[in-house]
Amino acid sequence: MKKLLLVLGVGLAATGSWAFYPKAPAAAPGGYLMVIGSGRPGTQSTAPEIVVIQPDGTRQVQRLPDIKIGTERNSTAAAVDMHRAELLKVNSLVAQGWRVAHVTQSTVGVGATTETMYLLERP
User: Fold this and answer.
1) Domain count along the chain
2) SS3 letters across the chain
3) Residue 48 within any structural domain of the chain
4) Residue 79: inside a domain
5) Distance (Å, rounded) from C-alpha 102 to C-alpha 104?
6) Is residue 120 a contact partner of residue 100, using CB atoms and an 8 Å limit?
7) What is the pTM of this model?
8) Enclosing domain of residue 93
9) Tens of pLDDT, residue by residue, the chain (123 residues)
10) Is 47 contained in some domain?
């Protein structure tokens, strides 16, 4: 009888201590996130912008009206400012746990709109 009580007591203590055992943190939602920076240096047609597409498909557009476009002379400065804004956005997402998986740059259309696409993933 004493052995049975001892076994039950130890079993009850072990079961009770399990409730205080540290649990694994909840996994953050995975998937991919895309950051697209697009602008047309040297024209006044549209302001450059950064578009963030979340893993669930929602889209956020950040217009960059402070970037001076409008003349060919300003096009290099505008491109540098555009890449600076993209870098700040990507760095803020990396600080939130995202990791850059792929970067692509392209020129689109007759007006030579430059787009830089960053594909980020959550490890």
Assistant:
1) 1
2) CHHHHHHHHHHHHHHHHHCCCCCCCCCCCCCEEEEEEEECCCCCCCCCEEEEECCCCCEEEEECCCCCCCCHHHHHHHHHHHHHHHHHHHHHHHHCCCEEEEEEEEEECCCCEEEEEEEEECC
3) yes
4) yes
5) 7
6) yes
7) 0.66
8) 30-121
9) 777 777 777 777 777 776 676 766 555 567 899 999 887 655 555 678 899 999 999 999 988 877 766 555 567 777 788 888 999 999 999 999 999 999 998 876 655 667 889 999 987
10) yes
Which residues neighbour 67 within 8 Å (Cβ) at sequence distance 6 or greater?
39, 47, 48, 78, 81, 82, 85
Residue at 10 is within a domain: no
CB 98 within 8 A of CB 59: no
Tokens found for residue 15:
């079961």
Structure tokens belonging to residue 5: 């009580």
Q: How is residue 38 written in tokens?
A: 């697009």
